[in-house]
Amino acid sequence: MRWTVVPSPVGDLTVARTDAGIAGLWFADHRGGPGETLTDRDDAAFDDVREQLGEYFAGRRTRFDLPLAPRGDAFARRVWDALTRIPCGATSTYGDIARALGGVGYSQAVGVANGRNPISIVVPCHRVVGHDGALVGYAGGLWRKRFLLDLETPDAEGAGRLF
């Protein structure tokens, strides 16, 4: 797996890709980081990622257009796909995603899959909040979750946000 490091306002991001697409994006102190040793550093293979992350952090990009290749079971991949449909500047709850996938009884499984999302920021697990709108769990730390949500807030009112 090829990888590089991309500097960002939330610290250095390690990005890994296979021939199929982006397989991981982790913070420097990411809880659960890469599940394997990354050995083939290839800084030249990530210009698209650098460009899109730069546009995102500058407030000029609300959706990423990168090929994705996360590793996970079928349910986790369904959850990660659902995360990509949460609009920039909005939030959703674990229960909302569970209902969309077949039933509120899936809420805990959604939480587990969300926590195992290997492609932070691009697959926006930071947009998922607790049922009461509270910021809960984020492998990159709650300060980063708050930073990303604030970056995405469309206006001072926080339109589309649950909190």
From TrEMBL:
Q: Which GO terms describe its biological process?
A: DNA alkylation repair; methylation
UniProt KW keywords: Cytoplasm, DNA damage, DNA repair, Methyltransferase, Transferase
Record's protein name:
Methylated-DNA--protein-cysteine methyltransferase
Q: What family name appears in the similarity comment?
A: Belongs to the MGMT family.
- State its location(s): Cytoplasm
| One GO cellular component term | cytoplasm
Q: Which GO terms describe its molecular function?
A: methylated-DNA-[protein]-cysteine S-methyltransferase activity
Q: Which species is this record about?
A: Kineococcus aurantiacus
EC number(s) per UniProt?
2.1.1.63
What the entry lists under Gene3D superfamilies is as follows:
Methylated DNA-protein cysteine methyltransferase domain, Winged helix-like DNA-binding domain superfamily/Winged helix DNA-binding domain
Domain Methylguanine DNA methyltransferase ribonuclease-like: where? 1-70
Domain annotation Methylated-DNA-[protein]-cysteine S-methyltransferase DNA binding: ranges: 74-152
Which residues constitute the catalytic centre? 125
Q: Which Pfam families match?
A: DNA_binding_1 (PF01035), Methyltransf_1N (PF02870)
Q: Which PANTHER family match?
A: METHYLATED-DNA--PROTEIN-CYSTEINE METHYLTRANSFERASE
The UniProt catalytic activity note for this protein reads: a 6-O-methyl-2'-deoxyguanosine in DNA + L-cysteinyl-[protein] = S-methyl-L-cysteinyl-[protein] + a 2'-deoxyguanosine in DNA; a 4-O-methyl-thymidine in DNA + L-cysteinyl-[protein] = a thymidine in DNA + S-methyl-L-cysteinyl-[protein]
Its UniProt miscellaneous note says: This enzyme catalyzes only one turnover and therefore is not strictly catalytic. According to one definition, an enzyme is a biocatalyst that acts repeatedly and over many reaction cycles.
Q: What HAMAP family does this protein's entry cite? A: OGT (MF_00772)
